[in-house]
């Protein structure tokens, strides 16, 4: 686990990345339960891709994509800041939660 935490801290230090930890304690406030990819294409259109154990689903219709984008922004607002996330990861690396 220490190596995984170290790799996440390294990732957070890259100039073009943002790392935020969403705590398990968010519970029902966590707006997304499965991995989702939100993409902005060259023509500025939005696409989402969600995957479950049974299938993947690509969506181009803004009627369905915009609520996912809203949920993503809600998750960003509720998650720890990057600085707090890195601090938490470093504490976990040292064994002090």
Q: Please, could you describe this protein's structure?
A:
- The structure is a single chain.
- The chain is of the alpha+beta class and 97 residues long.
- It has two domains: 1-21 and 81-97, no CATH class; 28-79, no CATH class.
- It is built from three helices and three strands, in the order αβββαα.
- The longest helix has 17 residues, at 62-78.
- The radius of gyration is 16 Å and the shape is elongated.
SSE inventory with pairings:
Layout: H1 2-13, E1 36-40, E2 46-51, E3 56-59, H2 62-78, H3 82-94
Antiparallel strand pairs: 1-2, 2-3
Quick overview of this protein structure:
With 97 residues, the protein is α+β, with helices and mostly antiparallel strands.
List keywords for this structure.
97 residues; three-stranded antiparallel beta sheet; alpha+beta
């Amino acid at each position: 686990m220490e190596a995984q935490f170290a790799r996440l801290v390294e990732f957070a230090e890259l100039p073009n990345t943002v790392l935020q930890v969403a705590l398990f304690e968010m519970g029902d406030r966590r707006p997304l339960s499965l991995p989702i990819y939100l993409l902005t294409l060259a023509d500025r259109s939005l696409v989402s891709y969600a995957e479950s154990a049974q299938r993947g689903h690509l969506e181009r219709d803004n009627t369905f994509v915009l609520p996912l984008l809203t949920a993503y922004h809600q998750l960003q607002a509720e998650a720890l800041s990057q600085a707090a996330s890195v601090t938490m990861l470093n504490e976990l690396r040292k064994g002090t939660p």
